[in-house]
Amino acid sequence: MSKPINIGIIGDYDPDRFSHQATNDALSHAANHLSAQVCITWLPTESFLETEWQQRLGQFDGLWAAPGSPYLSLEGALKGIQFARQLDWPFIGT
């Protein structure tokens, strides 16, 4: 079995938001279809205001800007998105 694909989701997970549940489900369904494993990590937007947040993002194979804003920290969300865009990191925004 190959190593899991690590996806970081830039956003503040709220289990009551259908779009957040659907994001997890979509990644899981895609991984199953491809016979792959996926490891999903939600990254709170306020965590991008702390030091060393860039090193943490570097551990992910791809990043996804979560649907269903507002974010707790718009500044934090924009920092995460900027990281992906400037470094040409695999990224999707919904």
Order of helices and strands: EHEHEHE
What is the CATH topology? Rossmann fold
What radius of gyration results from the CA coordinates?
A: 13 Å
- Secondary-structure content class: alpha/beta
The CATH C-level name is Alpha Beta
Low-confidence stretches: none
Strand order of the largest sheet: 2-1-3-4
Mean pLDDT: 91
Layout: helices, strands, pairs:
Blueprint: E1 5-10, H1 18-33, E2 38-43, H2 53-57, E3 62-65, H3 74-86, E4 91-93
Parallel strand pairs: 1-2, 1-3, 3-4
What would you note in describing this structure?
The chain is α/β, with parallel strands linked by helices and 94 residues long. The protein has a single domain (5-93), classed as Class I glutamine amidotransferase (GATase) domain (Rossmann fold, 3-Layer(aba) Sandwich), CATH 3.40.50. 36% of the residues lie in helices and 20% in strands. A four-stranded parallel sheet has the order 2-1-3-4, with helices on both faces. Strand 1, helix 1 and strand 2 (38-43) form a beta-alpha-beta unit. The longest helix is centred in the first third of the chain and has 16 residues, at 18-33. The chain is globular and about 35 Å long. The termini are far apart.
